[in-house]
Structure formats: C-alpha cells, structure tokens
C-alpha cells in the first residue's frame, strides 16, 4: 500500500498537545522492510495484527480494538479490526490470521489525566479507559507501530525484540502520566476465563506477575515482567472482584510502605509518573514458565533504554529475513510480495526462555538442549505451503521446528505430535495429523540436524493413535465412518495423504515395512470416492454411503471440515493421476474443474460457515482445502487453464489494502500461497520433491538460498496482455515438463518464462510432462 503523507502527521491540536516526537518515527523503513504494510489483512476476514514483532518472535505487541465475548470473537481473532474507532490498549501476544482467538496477554494502556478502570463502551467516548484514534496517525512498519490516542493526546510507539516488547509513550506535559495494566481481558473473552492471577511491585520497581486462563488451551499460564525508565511517584493495585485496593508511594530512595502484591482473578495496576518532561519507555518480557524466567528474559534481552536502537534492530532483523528473495516489480507488487513474506515469517513463534525452559503439552517445564523451541502450530493450514516455503528459504529454522515438534510429542500425555498448539499447549483444533508431512517434506528435501529415527517414531505414534479422530476405525475399515465420527469424508482423505507422506520418509530411510504399511493406507482415499455421484462422500460403518446427499451442503453435521463435496473432492494430492482416472479421464476431470470455478454461487450459501470465503464458483480461496485446486489442470494436461485460474485468483483474492486478504491468513498459509504463486510454482504435494508450475506474477525474483546458490525467476512480456506461458527454459534449456524438482532450485540457476497473449495448448500436455503421482496416468 502506498502511504498517504497524512498518515504520518497529527492534526494540529494533537501536535500541540504531545509536542514533536522523533522524526524517525515517520520515516520509511530501509530495505525490503520498507515495502511491508502490516495493515494488509487487518480488515475483513484476514485476522492479521498491525503491531510490532520480529521474525518468529515470542512477542507480538499490537493494539487491541476489541476483546469481545467468545460468542462474537471471530472478527477480532487478532485483537484488531481496521474499521474500529477505538483502541483499548496494547497487549503482547497475538495470533496472525487465525480462525480462532486467544492470547491478548498483558494489556497496557497509557493514560493522561483521570484514570478509569474499565474499558468502557466504544460507542460512548469517555466511558472507560479506551481511546479514540485516527488511522491518519498510525505508522505501521515491520517491527514498529505508532498511533496517537486522541482522548489522551498520547503518542504511543511500539517495537519488539525476540522476547521483549518495547513501548515509548509521549505524554502531554501538562497532565499527569499513568500506565494502566489490566490482567482481566483476553481475546476470546468470557466470564471466569481468568482462573488465577498474581501482580506485584518489586523493590527495584519491576512489576511482575502471572495469570492462568481457561481459554482455547485450558490452563494456560503466562507470566511477565515490566520495567519503566522513570520512577513511579505512586501506584495502586486493584482486585476488582473483591474491591480491595492497595496504594503505595515511592520517593527517591524509599520503598513502598504497604502491600506490594495481590492475588485474584480480576487484577489491575495503575502506575503513576506525574507530569513528564520526556517520553516514558516501558519494556515487557513474557514467559510461559515463571515470573523468575520472565525477569531473566528481561535482564538478558531487554538491556538498556534506547527505544530507537531496539527499533533499528527489529528493522535489521526483518531486512535480513526478507532478503532471502529480491523481487523486481511495481511498488504495489513489492508491497504485496514483501508483506506476504513478512506474514509467512511470523509463525511458529519462539516459546522458550533464555535459560532454555519451555512449557510442554503436559503442562510441565522442559528444557531444550541444542535447539530453540517453537510453538503456534496451525498445522492443518501451514503444512501446505508455509512450512514448505521455510524449507526452501530457511532450512536451518526447519531443523529447529522439527526438533520442537518431536519434543512436543515426547512430552505429550498421548504420545502424539501437535495438532494445533501454542505456547506449548494443545488445543486439538482441526483434523489430520499434519505435523507428519511437515517433517517428511523437510526430510525429503534434505533438511537434517534432527533425530530422524525419533521423528519416525513420533510420526508412526501419531498415525496409529486410535482414539484420535477415530483412527481406530480408519485403520480397521480403511475409512472413518460417519456414524462414529463427524466430518468423516475429510478425515479419511486427509489421513490418506498424511499416510503417504509418512511412507515417503520411511522409504527414504530404508524402513521398508513401515513404508509398505502406509503406502497401502495412502490408497484409502478410494474408499471415500462415490462413482455414482462423482464426489467424495462419507460412509457408514456398514460400508454404505450416508444419505441423503447434497454436494453443496457445508456446516455442522456434514461429511466435511469447513467445506462441502465440491471443495473436498479434489483432495488427493498424493494421487491426482488416480483421481483423474476415477473421474473418467482428462476431459471429464478438466470439465469438472471448470464447473467448480464457473458455478454461480451466492456467498450467502455459506453464511453459517465463517471460514468459507473468497468464492470463485465453489472454489473458496479463503479456506485451505481449495489452495491446490487451480494447479490440478497441470495434472490433466491443461496447464494454460492453471495459468488462467491463477490470474483470476491473484486479481480477486489479494490486494494492497486492509481488506486485501479474502480469508484468514492462518499463520502465514494464505501469504505463502501468494509467494509461491508469484514466483511461478507451488508445492501441491508436500513430501514430494516436486513443485507444479503455474505462471509468474513478478518480472524477476532472485532467491538467495542458504547453501550460497541463487535461483532466479525471470518473466519476459509479463503484463495484462500476455497472461499465458509461451515457453519455459531452465538454465537456458527448454523445460518441457510442468514441474520443478526441489534439487533443481537448490542447485541454483535460472527459470525463464516467456509470456504470450494466447494459450500454449501443447506445452505440458503429454503424460510424461505432468507431475508424478502414486498411480500412473490413465490407469
């Protein structure tokens, strides 16, 4: 997004109130970080946050415009919605693009003048501590966020390190300055969510505490430590449940003379600083283990008080991360590309303290040895493209990610890999056991540095744990029966793909018995295929398909997870050739794909299913089960149709504006799809070494690989008048197939596209040119 100059300047009245903050605050960030627009996805259903963080960092310090009750939390899964008129504070933990909400820990609000203790009604200015704001005063860069709180005349600036969030507040000089800390609210809030909390002021002025919440991950504990660069003149601790108030005063060299700590379920603290002549800097660290660890994190990662230096460090971290790809193109193209790459590099998040301790799925404290422990795993989403993108760009991090997954499995009370986990704890959200293809994809593409035998043991344990998602019946019957388990068709299909990915790694490791078992299980997709209707369906325990059947129906009680038969019947990424045969051959497969995209569908059809968005016919780009579908024309010998559909998707589902994502970014999956597609290829089948070729959407991209090689993608005649691929060369030689090998990218070189106005219907049509599959084409 091109920034309007007005975004960087306050109205005259507010400028007079706060004075001039550093000019650096409004300057564009250098390098690729300057092309990132964190506001993209903060409107509509993108569910991204605009605040400050660093690549895969533990802190996501961002404004919260609302923390509604759990019945209305969907739109505010990241705490912020672009259309909201007020900010209620700045909290330190957020998901980026999730379809579910939680976090919003350690909410801080700077206040000038009188202090109110409740957020108040956003429609009634002055009814609480929340403040109005204008987007014209927001500055959003990679690693930095600033806004003016209009009701207080306070300029708030935020930046972050790996474990520490930094605040700088410029208060009006004629009003007393306060910082309010509210330990009650949380994203996905409801009465009684906070089970217990502690808040204390230590003799050196450090504020610390913990709280335990009954949220998405039950019993989650989060501790913090907070310090200020200026002394408090007084402070008050509140227990709002019992209405107990403890006041304390602190002068130079004196200690508070009264109660220094409080326990309860509704705690707040107000810290008073009098009238300030210079900005107040606040630094906050977190820990899922203990207050002591939070303080240690602050001591080691939060040294000094130089906010601008910390901001520069955050920018440098982003420039280093984003420099893995140099992209040429228009300003809008660069903004969209680097914002997508930024979003793809937010998760999983560091979830380990400076001493190596972290909390595991058993709620116990563990110590990582020789790796950094990461969590925030939306595995149903990120195995498709986000994690394969990290394997390509950051295989060193993939090693830590896999070690984290193995460590979580070893600490799991059920002995299985994470499903949807954050801060080390499991939520059991979504289906499949998709940590398996994450590990297999990395291993098949050469990532090492982890114990492959331990990984295989964890993968097999996850694939054979009968109580999970009715794997017991799946192993017995070859499918998940709908009378025993909901969403049975989706589960059958996803288990079969996960089985295949496990078999690939077992084969590569020489574990032939394991490979044979799971190769056989990978064919179970056929048990969901109904040749009479031409759709994937759920069966009953007696082997009959459940009736009645409506391929357009989606929602609670259906055969599918966040989708319908039209969207899920294409989910056989391991055996697209077999699916083509089952559907009657290339022509019928191709025609049904056309029918999917060209159908006239009223979006209100899915009004009761929040995640099915971004419709093009029945295709739903806002939800992950559709993400590979446009590339399937490659497998039927019609890659020019893949090129058409990709253009349609890129032009309608992404834009450089707050509502520029058609659905949840899902911890980087939507953005990773964009990155791969812009480059011209996509991992339809993670755990293979192949990428299906689409068409590029940037004129030139140079991928700087960690092995020292560069892989360059160049597109000649790339414009609206030339939407089709005319020919492709790899290192100067004609490429007659519509796929790349991962090893070809790692070797370095140049992939050269020549675009043209009309389809090239012969390129990629032959059977030998198509991506490989479990079955042979035509059989």
Question: What average pLDDT do the residues reach?
Answer: 94
Radius of gyration: 27 Å
Number of helices: 18
Q: Strand sequence of the main sheet, in spatial order?
A: 6-7-8-9-18-13-12-11-16
Which word captures the global form? globular
Structural class: alpha+beta
Q: How many E-type strands?
A: 38
Distance between the termini: 49 Å
What is the chains' assembly state? Answer: single chain
The top-level CATH class of the domain at 5-320 is Mainly Beta
> What characterizes the major β-sheet?
9 strands, antiparallel
CATH architecture of the domain at 5-320: Distorted Sandwich
Helix percent reads 10-25%
Return residue spans where pLDDT drops below 50 for at least 5 consecutive residues.
Answer: 1-25, 250-258
CATH fold type of the domain at 5-320: Beta-galactosidase, Chain A, domain 5
Describe the structure.
GO terms for molecular function: carbohydrate binding; peptide-N4-(N-acetyl-beta-glucosaminyl)asparagine amidase activity. This is Alpha-1,2-mannosidase, putative. InterPro entries: 6-hairpin_glycosidase_sf (IPR008928), GH-type_carb-bd (IPR014718), GH92_a_mannosidase_put (IPR005887), GH92_N (IPR041371), Glyco_hydro_92 (IPR012939), PNGase (IPR050883). The chain contains 18 helices and 38 strands. It is of the alpha+beta class. The strands form eleven sheets. A nine-stranded antiparallel beta sheet has the order 6-7-8-9-18-13-12-11-16. Strands 19-33-34-38-35-36 form a six-stranded mixed beta sheet. The chain starts with 11 loop residues before the first helix and ends in a 23-residue tail after the last strand.
């Amino acid at each position: 997004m091109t920034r309007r100059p007005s975004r960087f300047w306050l109205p005259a009245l507010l400028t007079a109130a706060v004075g001039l903050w550093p000019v650096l605050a409004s300057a564009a960030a250098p390098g690729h970080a300057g092309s990132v627009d964190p506001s993209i996805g903060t409107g509509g259903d993108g569910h991204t946050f605009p605040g400050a963080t660093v690549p895969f960092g533990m802190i996501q310090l961002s404004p919260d415009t609302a923390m509604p009750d759990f019945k209305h939390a969907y739109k505010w899964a990241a705490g912020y919605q672009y259309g909201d008129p007020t900010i209620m504070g700045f909290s330190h933990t957020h998901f980026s693009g999730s379809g579910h909400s939680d976090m919003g820990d350690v909410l801080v609000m700077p206040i000038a003048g009188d202090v109110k203790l409740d957020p108040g009604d956003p429609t009634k200015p002055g009814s609480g501590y929340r403040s109005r704001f204008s987007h014209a005063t927001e500055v959003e860069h990679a690693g930095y966020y600033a806004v003016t709180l209009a009701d207080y005349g306070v300029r708030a600036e935020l930046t972050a390190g790996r474990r520490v969030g930094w605040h700088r507040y410029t208060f009006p000089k004629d009003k007393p300055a306060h910082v309010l800390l509210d330990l009650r609210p949380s994203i996905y809030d409801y009465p009684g969510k906070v089970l217990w909390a502690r808040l204390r002021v230590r003799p050196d002025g450090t504020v610390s505490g913990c709280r335990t919440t009954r949220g998405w991950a039950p019993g989650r504990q989060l501790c913090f430590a907070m310090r200020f660069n200026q002394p408090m003149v007084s402070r008050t601790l509140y227990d709002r449940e019992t209405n107990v108030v403890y006041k304390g005063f602190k002068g130079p060299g004196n200690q508070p003379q009264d109660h220094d700590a409080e326990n309860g379920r509704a705690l707040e603290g107000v810290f008073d600083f009098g009238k300030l002549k210079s900005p107040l800097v606040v630094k906050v660290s977190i820990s899922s283990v203990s207050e002591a660890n939070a303080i240690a994190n602050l001591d080691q990662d939060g040294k000094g008080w130089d906010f601008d230096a910390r901001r520069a460090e955050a920018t440098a971290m982003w420039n280093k991360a984003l420099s893995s790809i140099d992209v040429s193109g228009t300003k809008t193209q660069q903004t969209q590309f680097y914002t997508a790459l930024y979003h793809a590099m937010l998760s999983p998040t560091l979830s380990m303290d400076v001493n190596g301790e972290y909390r595991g799925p058993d709620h116990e404290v563990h110590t990582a040895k020789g790796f950094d422990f990461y969590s925030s795993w939306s595995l149903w989403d990120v195995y498709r493209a986000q994690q394969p993108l990290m394997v390509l760009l950051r295989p060193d991090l993939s090693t830590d990610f896999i070690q984290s997954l193995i460590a979580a499995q070893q600490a799991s009370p059920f002995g299985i890999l994470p499903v949807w986990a954050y801060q080390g704890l499991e939520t059991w959200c979504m289906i499949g056991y998709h940590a398996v293809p994450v590990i297999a994809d990395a291993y098949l593409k050469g990532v090492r540095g982890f114990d492959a035998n331990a990984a295989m043991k964890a993968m097999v344990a996850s694939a054979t744990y009968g109580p999970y998602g009715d794997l017991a019946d799946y192993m017995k019957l070859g499918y998940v029966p709908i009378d025993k388990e909901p969403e049975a068709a989706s589960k059958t299909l996803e288990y079969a793909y996960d089985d295949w990915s496990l078999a690939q790694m077992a084969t590569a490791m020489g574990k032939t018995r394991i490979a044979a078992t799971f190769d056989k299980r990978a064919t179970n997709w056929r048990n969901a295929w109904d040749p009479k209707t031409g759709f994937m369906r759920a069966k009953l325990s007696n082997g009959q398909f459940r009736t009645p059947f409506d391929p357009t129906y989606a929602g609670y009680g259906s055969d599918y997870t966040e989708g319908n038969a039209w969207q899920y019947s294409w989910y056989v990424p391991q055996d697209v050739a077999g699916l083509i045969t089952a559907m009657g051959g290339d022509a019928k497969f191709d025609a049904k794909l056309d029918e999917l995209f060209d159908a006239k569908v009223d979006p209100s059809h899915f009004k009761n299913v929040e995640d099915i968005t971004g419709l093009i016919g029945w295709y739903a780009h806002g939800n992950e089960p559709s993400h590979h579908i446009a590339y399937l024309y490659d497998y039927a010998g019609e890659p020019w149709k893949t090129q058409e559909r990709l253009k349609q998707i890129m032009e309608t589902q992404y834009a450089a504006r707050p509502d520029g994502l058609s659905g949840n970014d899902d911890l980087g999956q939507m953005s990773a799809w964009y990155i791969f597609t812009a480059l011209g290829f996509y991992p339809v089948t993670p755990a293979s070494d192949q990428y299906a070729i689409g068409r590029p959407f940037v004129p030139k991209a140079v991928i700087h690989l960690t092995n020292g090689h560069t892989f360059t993608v160049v597109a000649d005649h790339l414009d609206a008048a030339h939407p089709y691929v005319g020919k492709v060369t790899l290192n100067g030689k004609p490429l007659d197939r519509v796929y790349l090998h991962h090893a070809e990218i790692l070797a370095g070189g140049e992939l050269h596209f020549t675009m043209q106005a009309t389809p090239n219907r012969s390129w990629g049509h032959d059977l030998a040119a198509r991506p490989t599959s479990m079955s042979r084409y035509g059989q």
